[in-house]
Amino acid sequence: QVQLVESGGGSVQAGGSLRLSCAASGRIFSINAMRWYRQAPGNERELVAGIISGGRINYADSVEGRFTISRDNAKNTVYLQMNSLKPEDTAVYYCNFLVRSTSLLPLADYWGQGTQVTVSS
Fold it and tell me: Residue range 96-113: average pLDDT?
């Protein structure tokens, strides 16, 4: 019932910037949380940043001060502005939403397809 589509990945040099977008479509009653994760080859998937419906935001220590998460509730879209990128930021980035499809259904997890971010030195 819900699909998440990501865009904005690519290749940049160290110190550059990228902006990721993730838009949800389908039957949506409410979105309780929007999050960005990333996973590099051989590594565990890690939480990068998250925002809940009330506006509370948190970041991983490794990106604090460089990345900014924001949302457009009217468009069911979350963004990740990434500045001062480092080679260690190279990974596949995934968005994750906690969604209630109708008032009668519980929350459910939905994932984007992933978008590659590559940072070269």
Answer: 95
